[in-house]
């Protein structure tokens, strides 16, 4: 039951080229930077990544992206990541952009064993009708576009069919975890981390604070250990290394 491994390198040692990854994080909050760096150092490439965004400020997934290690991204937000936009428009990267709530539910559904579900989000748009550019040809044309999806009416309202997401691996970051893999997330880092963890066939967590089994009140567990196969304990320096994407001040 003790799922702790000694190092990040050991935790990701079996992630192969071409693997699919669900990666937690919301902006720069709750991003598993240490595990991502371990993948970078292993020079794993051809990755298919499912994540809300693809890193920023040269951290997180932006590290892998800039090195050309990511082949496909399923996400909701490009944001201020100029390299992400450049690779996408240049035809170097395949990108499936979907509504943020749909992405969250597709991850949750995959982890819960639900193959597909209907949602009103995207009905009447290219999300449902198809034609969203997945890959450009580098000359302004579309090399690959999204296919149309099934639309069905329920009680007078149209809904589009979306499929659950399962990935080979998931990388997440938690504020606290015990040796059995039970995890607690802090504030907005809870947005996508539990869902990404559910979607992975092998889920690896980095935790800022490692405690013994029983020290987390069962009522406080955000993700049960059944969804986690491995975890590493961060050093105090790693746990404290948190970047701020948009620094603001108030009167």
What does this structure look like?
The protein is of the alpha/beta class. The chain has helices spanning 8-11, 33-42, 61-66, 82-89, 100-112, 126-129, 193-199, 236-240, and strands spanning 20-23, 47-50, 70-75, 94-97, 116-119, 133-136, 142-145, 151-154, 157-163, 167-178, 183-184, 200-211, 230-233. Strands 1, 2, 3, 4, 10, 11, 12 and 13 form an 8-stranded mixed sheet that branches. Strands 5-9-8 form a 3-stranded antiparallel sheet. α4 (82-89) links the parallel β3 and β4 (94-97). α5 (100-112) crosses α7 (193-199). The longest helix has 13 residues, at 100-112.
Structural class: alpha/beta
Percent range of helical residues:
10-25%
So what's the oligomer here?
single chain
Summarize the biggest pleated sheet.
Answer: 8 strands, mixed
Tell me what portion of residues adopts beta-strand conformation: 25-35%
Principal-axes shape call:
globular
Count of individual helical segments: 8
> How confident is the prediction overall: mean pLDDT?
95
Q: How far from one another are the termini?
A: 50 Å
